[in-house]
Design a protein that fits this description.
2 domains, alpha/beta, homodimer, Rossmann fold, six-stranded mixed beta sheet, Nitrilase/N-carbamoyl-D-aminoacid amidohydrolase
């Protein structure tokens, strides 16, 4: 039931219809039209049971986001059209809500790109409205101008006498009052709000509602930005802003969901779960339509992102099991702990592969970790294989000193063993390298870099410690000894990370500034109080190891700038740092 | 000396100044501002000695193409500006030509991208004209909309009383009379030609000249398309069209140069070398300003592209030497032959790594190849290392049959050995997998996929045979036995490629249709007369091996659609073929 509420955007009080809308934040699989359609219909039915007039799904939900070059296949676009027909047919049933969802559609024009990114409103068995995305992000991990023809204009639509301003993700991200620098010359929301005022008076006076269907991947700080930006938008336009976001991991990207409803005074009145599917129902009359959860701590958010990213990658690749090489060090311990939460302890295998340079403590720490996690542990010593390789290479290597080659060799033997187990038993190897290592190249290509997914490849070493303490928040999972000992690759006697690298307290801020924010050596030196020659040495390590990163496993992205598709650097270059 | 020539674009004869222009197709290194500037000044001096008024360099030549995300670094853009100042200062010297070259410049506007892709005309010590690129390709390997703000309009410029229409690469690629489908709504060339007519009469009557500075990478068929397209442009606008193209390898991309001058009747009157630096001088009066070479055979072009791509990758990475695992098979033999032409026989090492499944013939073939190529050959048998691994894995593998795991294991042992030699002696491993293998996943991740560069990763198996015959065009380099025997990975007794795959005569056309042209299973089956179930099996192999390709070495691109940055598919998907 609805009645009178204050129209904050207008000077007086106006009569409003109640609008009850559901935001269905679901976890689609790219290309799985049957599975995605089934999930859409399930959530739509639930929204119908709760009396919603409209149920709103994320951007490109029909095919899953990001579909990448699958969009260039005609059959893919046809399969999406068939799925949309199926969903539209469903809406014919009595008492069923209209479905607003994202999909791909062909373009008829003889010029430009051949498909468009659209929101389709499905009601009464057919497509009753199509809004085409106007602002196509093309930075970091986004390539949308590669695929889509942008809309030339935006239109309001009306459902049951209520106008709706429908926008797709980036279309709501160009508010000139919010951003110091606008990325695009036009603002689709502004255009829609202008249209609002020019409607017939019985429509223009209705509560303004901006719907935003998104596939907005997580990175640290992003949920806060989204919330502030949508609040600013709500206030500026005196509108309800309801944003539904995809949830789930797709390769490197983890979508956090965290759908939001902001009322016209900028207050958040409903919030979807973070890193889980959810159905958020709100109406424009009720004051407290949903519980509003507290924002979570940064480390907890990263943890959840990595768990969901790992689980979805393994499952969507069609696997159930994973294995991790356990060195007794903190990186592999953390990855194993994440894997156990993602996949269950019965699905994770830990493999210790000591060489003659491994300390007894390390083996014990690995074994203890496995015990704490309740996972199976196997010990495969590599001494003999290592010796055999050295024998084979002796005719070539005779007289050369033990060095990086021999260190890499041990790491690669481990990679080969992990891959053999993976091949034999059909489980995925999880890579254990952290972002500090991947940045500096302090890792072995085809060695410790082996694996299907680089779980913590976007987590700097200091954050690895923070996450490990988080893993131990209830009980000791990662052995204290593992957390407390000095980091070492244990590839030669008495080796320490600090033999080759500055301490992580110095290193990580340099790397963050360079890798994530593109600061110059001079600026880093000045702002961080570190000798510029040392800074330059570190930056040269970053530049020289690009070739390794281009052959790395996909990295779960949790920062604004992670390795992978969002960071595209050439290899054969001469770059001055 | 100049005089009267027929203005083909105009009804009568008009007085024209002679315009003598040099096209300097050079090989820059990305980020090497000092080296690139030096090379620009050398070629400019040579053009000056030949009496040229203007010397034209390729797109983004100052920084090298493609700079990718280096463009997002402020220092990179500043270094480009400094290089441009240095080149401009050079033009102050007496008798020196004006320099037209491509570079990156900042954008001042408060909205949009922060840099632009420009052609700068440097004369009299300063930047006398700037043309900004308007059409920014964003497909296949091109990401230009990620970086650049497009021009909103184009302007003619005048040098010594001669108007010039300056365009940048893609700006000349949108002629609606030539392309069945236009990619962009505007045509910068059309706009410039419209302006031509509205100039003061003493300018409007001059010979029309369209300059195009390009960084247009090679793939099969591309040089022919460029030539036809530019000829159509010349005829349509009654203009000389002079296109200068970058030459050289930059990571995956190989630029063929092949600069062109087309006169207003569409006839090519000058042509730069293919796959080599060149200075092409033409004037609008002389009839035969340069020798016009005959178009080369497809296989010869691929050969040259792979040789240049390999050489530049190794050299620009700062290396001189390479090594190749020689199995006695045709793929590794071809890669070794290419490496020898690229780097010299003294810089290539061949390594034979027989297992118990390698035939004696294969070892002999490998040895003979090395002898024919004049390269050093080392034999490192892997039996014992293989046995040792099997021993270590026995507790886990006990009772399981010999299979794919053991095959991959042998391949990975070889990868580890090659990387050890690479690490020890500072030489790059060249990967030997062909495109048929990379397409179907008939290759071992971290095994035969190991290496810095996938030399023939864009060459289907049947083309590997053609290239091998080309390598033998003068004498037997690749042993006949290698070319004639049935292809085998030799990872189990009596293994043949055809145990797992259809014959390459059937396989390769299926793969080309699917990987390069995105045909459906039905269409392939129909057009190629192959059972649709078999086609589907092949396509499923392609889909299931995407994870391998994402960790592959950079592939030298020689077809319209190669693996790597130009083909972006997700891994964790459910795709129906």
């Amino acid at each position: 039931m609805c009645g009178w509420i204050a129209g904050l955007w207008s000077p007086g009080r106006v009569r409003l219809n109640c609008v009850k809308i559901a935001l269905a934040q679901i976890n689609p699989t790219v290309g799985d039209f049957a599975g995605n359609t089934q999930k859409i219909l399930e959530f739509a039915a639930r929204a119908g049971e709760q009396g919603c007039a409209v149920v709103v799904f994320p951007e490109l939900v029909v095919c899953g986001y990001p579909p990448a070059d699958l969009l260039e296949k005609r059959e893919f676009v046809e399969q999406a059209a068939a799925a949309v027909r199926e969903i539209a047919a469903w809406t014919l049933g009595a008492g069923r809500p209209a479905v607003l969802c994202g999909t791909v559609m062909p373009v008829d024009a003889p010029v430009g790109k051949q498909v468009r990114n659209v929101a389709v409103l499905l009601a009464g068995g057919k497509v009753s409205f199509v809004q085409q995305k106007m602002l196509l992000p093309f930075y970091d991990v986004f390539d949308e101008q590669r695929y889509f023809e942008p809309a030339s204009r935006q239109m309001l639509t009306v459902v049951d006498g209520q106008p709706l301003a429908i926008t797709i993700c980036e279309d709501a991200w160009n508010d000139k009052a919010f951003w110091p620098r606008q990325m695009y010359a036009v603002d689709p929301v502004e255009e829609l709000m202008r249209q609002w005022g020019t409607q017939p008076v019985e429509l223009a006076g209705k509560q303004r509602i901006i719907l935003n269907i998104s596939a907005s991947p997580f990175w640290l700080g992003k949920p806060e930005v989204r919330e502030k930006m949508l609040a600013a938008l709500a206030e500026r336009h005196g509108a309800y802003v309801a944003m539904v976001n995809q949830v789930g991991g797709n390769d490197s990207l983890v979508f956090d969901g965290s759908s939001l409803v902001v009322q016209p005074d900028g207050k958040v009145v409903a919030r979807g779960a973070a890193f889980a599917e959810d159905l958020v129902v709100f109406d424009t009359e009720a004051k407290d339509v949903a519980a509003v959860g507290a924002a979570e701590d940064e480390v907890a958010l990263i943890w959840k992102a990595l768990v969901m990213g790992t689980r979805d990658y393994v499952w969507k690749c069609g696997f159930k099991k994973a294995l991790v090489g356990l060195s007794g060090g903190i990186d592999s311990a953390l990855v194993a702990a994440i894997a156990v939460e993602a996949l269950g302890s019965e699905n994770v295998l830990g493999v210790g592969m000591p060489s003659e340079y491994s300390s007894l403590g390390s083996i014990e720490d690995a074994r203890k970790l496995a015990k704490n996690l309740g996972i199976r542990f196997e010990l495969l010593p590599i001494h003999d294989v290592f010796a055999q390789y050295q024998g084979v290479l002796k005719p070539l290597f005779e007289g050369t000193p033990f060095g990086l080659t021999e260190e890499n060799l041990q790491s690669r033997i481990r990679g080969v063993l992990l891959m053999a187990i993976s091949n034999k038993f059909g489980s995925l190897v999880l890579t254990t390298g952290n972002k500090s290592e991947m940045s500096t190249g302090y890792c072995t290509l085809y060695g410790d870099m082996v694996g299907a997914l680089a779980v913590i490849g976007d987590v700097m070493k200091l954050k690895v410690y923070a996450l490990s303490r988080y893993a131990n928040r209830e009980r000791e999972v990662i052995p204290h000894a593992t957390i407390e000992k000095a980091p070492s690759a244990e590839l030669r006697p008495g080796q320490r990370d600090t033999d080759s690298l500055p301490p992580y307290e110095v290193l990580d801020p340099i790397l963050e500034a360079y890798v994530e924010r593109y600061w110059s050596a001079e600026r880093i030196s000045e702002e961080q109080g570190v000798d510029v020659a040392l800074v330059r040495q570190v930056l040269q390590l970053v530049e020289r190891s690009e070739y390794k990163r281009q052959q790395a496993a996909p990295v779960l992205k949790v920062t604004q700038k992670s390795f992978g598709m969002g960071r595209r650097f050439p290899i054969a270059v001469k770059v001055q740092v």
